[in-house]
Design brief:
The chain is mainly alpha-helical. It contains 30 helices and seven strands. The chain is 65% helix and 4% strand. A hairpin with a 2-residue loop joins strand 2 and strand 3.
C-alpha cells in the first residue's frame, strides 16, 4: 500500500501545475463543505469558489483538448493568426450581443427569463445559507430539466454588476460564449488542416464572422438563453474523436471526452439527442474502419472498456435526470409547442438558415466527403445531425435554441467550404471569395435586424428577426406593478391572466428589477393546457387580473370569460380597477372576496372537461384536492 501511495504521489507531482491546483481546489472545497463553518456562513464565498473551479476546469479541458487534437503544434496563443482572429472576433461578438440587448427597450418573459431567474435563485439560496445553496444547486443539477450548471459559469462577473437581464446576458456572453467561440474556432482549424495552402490570416477571421453574426445563434443569445454554451463541449467531442479510432486507449483523451460529454448533458436536456446520435454514428464508423483494417476485435474491446464505464459514470450520478427523461411523455406535455414532424421541421430550417447559408453548408459537406482525411468525420457529422433532428422532432419542434443541436453540422461543413475558398491557388480569386462570404454573413445579420424599410423578404437569407423592440408602454406596465406593491404584502399574490399582444404574467413579474419581490408576488398565467393545468392561483391570490380576450380553447381565454361574464365563479370576485395597456388591451383587476364553494369547483370542472379527459391529474384531481384541503382546514 505505501508503494501504491508513492506511485500515486509521483504521478500527481508529474502533472502540470494548473491541473494540480485544480485538484487541490476541488479537494479543499470538499473539506470545507464537510467542515460546515464556511458552508453555513460563507455562501457568497462558495459561489465565487465554485466559479473559479468551473472556469478553471473548462480552461484545463480546452487546453488539454488543444494538445491532443494538435500534437506537436504550438499553443494557440503563439499561433498569431488564430489568436488575433479569436481575440478580435470574440470582442466583436460580445459587442454585438451587448449592442442588441442594450438597444432594446423591452421586458423578457418565459424562456427569456428562465436562467436569469435561476441565477437570482442561486445567489439568494447561497446568500441565505451555504447548506441550503448546495442543496438547491444539487437538486437543480440532478433532477431539473433546466439546470443551474450554466449559471455556475455566469456567477462572476454578474455577482458584482447590477442584477438586470441585460447585464446577465452580457455576462454569459463573456463567460460562456467566449470559450465556445474558442472551441469552435479550433474545429475550424482542424478542418483547415485537411486543405493545402489555406490562407489562415483570412480564414480564421472569416470563421469568426460566420459564428458571431449567425442569426440562429444570436436570437437565443440575445433573449436570455445561454444554451449555445453546450457547443463548447460538442466542439471538444468533435476534436477528440476526429482522428481517434480506438486502436489503443489514451487516458488523457478519454478523460477529456468523458468530461465534455458529462458537461454537455448538464447544459440542456435536448443536447442528449445529439450525444446519442453522434456516438452511435461514431461507434459504427470506428467499427467499420476496424473491420476493414482487420482489427475489429481489438477496437471493439477498447470501445467497450471505455464505453461501459463512461455510460455508467454519466448515468448513475444523473440517474434522476435520465429517469425523468425516460418516464416523461414530452410529446404530451409539449403538445402545444409541437408544429409537426421531421418534414415540417426541415422546411422550418430552410427558412431559419436561408438558402444561401444551407448551400454553403452543403458545398462544405461535398468538399469534406471528397477529402479522405475528412470523409469519415463529415459522414458522421451529417448522419448524427440528421439522427438528432429525427429523434427530437418525434416529440417537439425545433425552436431557435433547440436548433443548436444542428450547429455542429452547420458550422463544421461551413468551415470546410470557407477553408476551400481560402485555399484557392489564385490569390485574387481566394480574396474575392472570402470577401463575398464575409459580405454574405454581414448581409444575413443585417437583414435579421428587420430595420423597417431596409430589409429583404427572401428565402435566400435567414428569416430570423433579432428584435429591435423599444417598448413605449413601460409606464403603463409600471402602473400595474405599482398597484401590486402598494396593495399587497410580500406574502400575498396577484394572478395576472394574460398571454397576448406582447404581455404575459412574466412580463409584469420581471419588468421592475428594482423590486425583485414582484417575481414571487405575481403568479404567471397558465397558458398551456398540457403543462400548467387548472390555475389554483385564481383562488389563492388576493387579486386576479383578466382581460376581455375570450379566445376559445385556451386556458387564458376561459379564465377571462369566467370572471368577466355571469358565471358561478364571478360572484366570488369584486371589481377594483382597470389598467389600459398598449394595442387596446385593458387589464381588469378583481379582488377575491370568498373561498371557492362546490358550485364554483363544479363549474371549472365542466369548463375544462375536455382537458380533464386527457389530463385529469392537472384538472379535476387538482380541484378536488384543493377543495378537500379547504374542507379539512
Amino acid at each position: 500500500m505505501p508503494a501504491l501511495f508513492h506511485r500515486l504521489r509521483c504521478a500527481f507531482a508529474a502533472q502540470p501545475l494548473s491541473l494540480r491546483l485544480f485538484v487541490w481546489g476541488v479537494l479543499l472545497l470538499g473539506a470545507v463543505l464537510a467542515g460546515g463553518a464556511l458552508t453555513a456562513y460563507g455562501g457568497t464565498v462558495l459561489v465565487i469558489w465554485l466559479w473559479v473551479l468551473c472556469m478553471g476546469g473548462l480552461c484545463l479541458l480546452l487546453a488539454e483538448t488543444w494538445r491532443i487534437a494538435f500534437p506537436g503544434q504550438q499553443p494557440f496563443y503563439r499561433d498569431r493568426a488564430f489568436r488575433n482572429a479569436f481575440v478580435i472576433g470574440a470582442a466583436v461578438g460580445v459587442a454585438v450581443i451587448a449592442g442588441l440587448v442594450f438597444y432594446r427597450r423591452t421586458v423578457y418573459s418565459e424562456d427569456g427569463i428562465n436562467y436569469y431567474a435561476k441565477q437570482s435563485l442561486l445567489f439568494s439560496s447561497f446568500a441565505s445559507n451555504g447548506f441550503y445553496g448546495v442543496r438547491t444547486l444539487l437538486d437543480s443539477i440532478l433532477t431539473a430539466d433546466y439546470k443551474m450548471f450554466m449559471n455556475l459559469f455566469i456567477s462572476i462577473p454578474y455577482l458584482f454588476l447590477p442584477r438586470t437581464v441585460n447585464c446577465f446576458m452580457v455576462c454569459y456572453a463573456l463567460t460562456c460564449f467566449v470559450p465556445m467561440w474558442f472551441a469552435l474556432l479550433a474545429v475550424a482549424k482542424r478542418a483547415a488542416d485537411a486543405f493545402a495552402g489555406v490562407r489562415r490570416g483570412v480564414y480564421y477571421p472569416l470563421c469568426m464572422t460566420c459564428m458571431v453574426l449567425w442569426p440562429m445563434f444570436l436570437w437565443p443569445a440575445t433573449h436570455g438563453m445561454p444554451d449555445a454554451f453546450g457547443l463548447t463541449f460538442a466542439a471538444v467531442i468533435l476534436l477528440l474523436t476526429a482522428d481517434y479510432r480506438f486502436d489503443r486507449l489514451e487516458p488523457r483523451r478519454l478523460v477529456c471526452l468523458f468530461a465534455a460529454t458529462f458537461a454537455l448533458v448538464l447544459t440542456r436536456r435536448w443536447y442528449m439527442f445529439w450525444i446519442l446520435a453522434y456516438y452511435l454514428c461514431y461507434a459504427a464508423a470506428v467499427l467499420l474502419g476496424a473491420a476493414r483494417r482487420r482489427v475489429f476485435g481489438r477496437v471493439l474491446g477498447n470501445l467497450l472498456k471505455f464505453g461501459i464505464p463512461a455510460v455508467i459514470g454519466v448515468v448513475v450520478p444523473l440517474l434522476p435526470t435520465f429517469v425523468t427523461a425516460l418516464t416523461t411523455d414530452y410529446a404530451d406535455i409539449y403538445g402545444a409547442f409541437y408544429g409537426g414532424g421531421l418534414l415540417v421541421n426541415l422546411q422550418a430550417q430552410l427558412g431559419r438558415q436561408g438558402w444561401l447559408f444551407l448551400a454553403l453548408c452543403l458545398a462544405g459537406l461535398a468538399l469534406a466527403l471528397a477529402k479522405p482525411a475528412l470523409r469519415g468525420s463529415a459522414a458522421v457529422l451529417a448522419l448524427s445531425g440528421a439522427g438528432a433532428m429525427a429523434l427530437f422532432t418525434r416529440t417537439q419542434s425545433l425552436g431557435d435554441h433547440q436548433s443548436l443541436i444542428l450547429a455542429p453540422f452547420y458550422l463544421g461543413t461551413a468551415f470546410c467550404a470557407l477553408a476551400a475558398v481560402c485555399a484557392l491557388r489564385r490569390t485574387a480569386l481566394a480574396r474575392a471569395g472570402a470577401g463575398a462570404a464575409a459580405a454574405f454573413f454581414v448581409l444575413n445579420f443585417a437583414n435579421a435586424l428587420r430595420v423597417p424599410g431596409a430589409y429583404l423578404s427572401t428565402p435566400l437569407l435567414s428569416d430570423e428577426s433579432l428584435d429591435l423592440t423599444r417598448r413605449t408602454d413601460l409606464d403603463q406596465m409600471a402602473a400595474v406593478t405599482d398597484f401590486v406593491l402598494q396593495n399587497c404584502a410580500q406574502d400575498e399574490t396577484v394572478y395576472i391572466n394574460i398571454d397576448s399582444d406582447g404581455y404575459s404574467g412574466t412580463t409584469f413579474a420581471f419588468s421592475d428589477p428594482a423590486n425583485p419581490q414582484l417575481q414571487s408576488m405575481i403568479l404567471w398565467e397558465s397558458s398551456v393546457p398540457s403543462t400548467h393545468g387548472f390555475p389554483t392561483g385564481i383562488w389563492t391570490s388576493k387579486y386576479v387580473m383578466v382581460t376581455d380576450k375570450f379566445d376559445t380553447g385556451t386556458l387564458v381565454g376561459d379564465i377571462n370569460r369566467a370572471l368577466r361574464t355571469d358565471t358561478p365563479a364571478a360572484g366570488h370576485y369584486q371589481y377594483m380597477t382597470e389598467f389600459p395597456l398598449a394595442n387596446g388591451v385593458t387589464l381588469y383587476c378583481y379582488q377575491r372576496t370568498s373561498q371557492p364553494d362546490q358550485a364554483e369547483a363544479d363549474y371549472f370542472k365542466t369548463l375544462f372537461a375536455g382537458y380533464d379527459a386527457r389530463w385529469p391529474e392537472l384538472y379535476s384531481q387538482r380541484i378536488d384536492a384543493y377543495m378537500a384541503e379547504l374542507g379539512a382546514g
